[in-house]
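Go through this:
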Amino acid sequence: MPRHIRSAWLKTLATLAALLLAAGLLGLAVGHVWMCIALASIGALAWHYWRLRRVLRGLTARHRWDMGDGTGVWNELDRLLYRNQWEMRTRKRRLLDMLRSYRAAAAALPDAVVVVDRNSQRVQWFNEAATSLLACIIQAISARRWSNACSRCHWPTGWPVAAMPNPSWTCPRRSILRSA
């Protein structure tokens, strides 16, 4: 266990011991030692359950965690949760930046690039060069119906597609065939 976490535990245990000792001394003065110790224990237990409830509410509501400013074990837990959230946000930002740079590089390529989901086989993204390759099925993608695709395309009927570039775009082969 790291030193700062050990010291947080020792601080929390020392605070609890001091509370019980003060309750015992108060009980000696009043004449009900065990009752005062029991009430102090119940109070400490209620406080710990209140802090646990606060942690659980924060985790289930997915709120941003505040950095703890005390020295106890609960404040150390707040600091750890804050650090984990900060690291996760940093990791997500880094991954999004990488995705944007890959997407920009793929969009600039003169070759057609089509990104397909591994599990569902859905088209996730394609660059501008792929629109000419897939020109005969763009109309069908925008209509979400593969049965309207050009007869020259040999794509399987009913193949699912999740993304579409521009719904107002029309298939150039269809317009050529209509004019002829």
